[in-house]
Amino acid sequence: MTLVQDLQGDDFATKSAYRAGTLSVELVGSLDMETTPRLRNFLTRVEEAAANTVQAIVFDATELYLMSSSAISCFASFLKRLKKLNHPFRITFRTNQAHTWQRRAFEPLARLAGEFVSIE
Amino acid sequence: MLRAKRWCILIELSATKQAWGGNVRLDFDFRGRAGYVNHARELVAELCNAELAGSDTSHWIIAAQELLENLAKYAAPGRASFEFELGAHDDRRYARLTTRNEATPERIDVASALLRRITESADPAALYDSLVAASGEDGRSRLGLIRIRAEGGLDLRYTVKGSSLEIVVSGNVPRTREQP
What we know:
- The structure holds two protein chains of two kinds.
- Chain A is an alpha/beta fold.
- Chain A contains three helices and six strands; from the N terminus they run E-E-H-E-E-H-E-H-E.
- Chain A has one domain (12-119): 2-Layer Sandwich (Transcription Regulator spoIIAA).
- In chain A, strands 1, 2, 3, 4, 5 and 6 form a six-stranded mixed beta sheet that branches.
- The longest helix of chain A is centred in the middle third of the chain and has 15 residues, at 36-50.
- The two termini of chain A are 24 Å apart.
- Chain B is an alpha+beta fold.
- Chain B starts with a strand and ends in an 8-residue tail after the last strand.
- Chain B has a seven-stranded antiparallel beta sheet, with helices on one face.
- Helix content of chain B is 38%, strand content 31%.
- Chain A binds chain B through residues 30, 32-34, 66, 68-70, 72-74, 76-77, 80, 99-101, 104-105, 108-109, 111-112, and chain B through 34, 37-38, 41, 56, 58-59, 61-62, 65-66, 69, 72-73, 128-129, 132-133, 135-136, 140-144, 147, 150-152.
């Protein structure tokens, strides 16, 4: 089932699927100064679509090859908005061990909202 | 070496028993040119793959991306310089990224204040967390430079002379089996 319209593009795209209260979002490509504004819009749509429906969101970064600080900031803003909700979704960032930078990049986000964010 | 009115690429590489290393310097007007940023980062990645095979060089690729994005977003009109250097000193091998650009007085003030906090911080991870918590409130991340120090563990220095800003990121790199 599709809950939110995915981003298309050669540089960055998303592939999302909704099942049994969990929204899974594959992040594919590179998040840099050019593609991050599209991520920002996507996360806003996720937030709107997920309200009262979703219990958990899994961001799968297995095929994410680069994430610059603008994207970290974008995720941080998203998490800060979720923090204000009475019952924020459970957020998981699924990393690729072959991309050693990923865990280092997502850890500050887990520290920002450790009560509902985890890294796999 | 290629030279033209608006851009310059300088590549020098050597890998002999006498002198391992080399450098790549790109002089462009990077402003707003994400394509230039990506090509320059990929060049650094290819050099790391070739010269530092087998070691984790991802923090150098991330550092290059952050410095290049800063040039694209904040440099004043005109040519800015980006340089990646691999070198050896005594028995130590190092990598170094250097950017030089002109900027407005307002931008120089903002960058200097942030760079001072980052370079003087005794706990970069704690500073990173506080900047992440405040990030995005004015539409700017302000995370690129602290990320280089907190995530990558690299040394960061800067020099301001009038409207010119120079940032130098450096660190040791391992000797790989292929290196002479």
